[in-house]
Amino acid sequence: MKPITLGLAVALAFIAGFTDWRWRRIPNWLTVSGFAAGLAANAATAGWGGLKTSLLGAGLGLLLLLPFVLLHALGAGDWKLAGALGAFVGPAILTDVLMASVFVAGLMAFALVIYKRRIKQTLRNIGAMLASMMRFHMPGAEVSLDNPQSLKVPYGVALALSTIIYGAWTFKMRGIR
């Protein structure tokens, strides 16, 4: 991947992470323009192969996170951000970034549960989710994003942090300043 393409992905991630942290939403103008910029950047730097990689990355990001959006466990802005980032970095790097973002989101959730002193409720919710999975049923509304009392971790922030860390690590390893 070209440094300019990774730099643009990091810039997109930074803006999206800030908007998700500040306003708890990631606007469509950002994700749609990010998707288009990812396609254009990869096509310009690597031709048809770059365009193919870009489309595969976007498709993978959208495909992997779609079930979570349908279950109301993830917002649509986070989902579209994953697609836009995939358009910049391609499927191989996006897989690494998504795995790291799950870890970062887990740390954020753990800190939030402790900060809000909701450990018992969280353990009950995890038990309810596991029980419904064992019965092949959807979990109750109390464990979805629709519940106004549920604690919500801004996944766009976790995805942004993972992308920024990946970018910084890559630039450092390549000696790019």
Question: Would you kindly provide a written description of the structure presented here, covering whatever features stand out?
Answer:
The chain is mainly α and 177 residues long. The protein has helices at 3-23, 28-70, 76-116, 119-134, 155-174. The chain has a domain at 3-101 and 154-174. It has five helices and no strands. Helix 1 (3-23) packs across helix 2, helix 1 runs antiparallel to helix 5 (155-174) and helix 3 (76-116) packs across helix 5. The protein is elongated and about 50 Å long. The mean pLDDT is 91.
Brief overview:
The protein has 177 residues and is mainly α.
Features:
177 residues; mainly alpha; 80% helix
How many whole angstroms does the radius of gyration measure?
17 Å
- Secondary-structure element order, N to C: HHHHH
What is the straight-line distance between the termini? 16 Å
Number of strands: 0
Structural class: mainly alpha
Q: Which spans have pLDDT < 50 for at least 5 consecutive residues?
A: none
Compute the number of helices: 5
Instruction: Tell me the β content.
Output: under 5%
Q: Specify the overall morphology.
A: elongated
Oligomer: single chain
Biggest sheet architecture: none
Quick check: average pLDDT? 91
Fraction of helical residues: over 70%
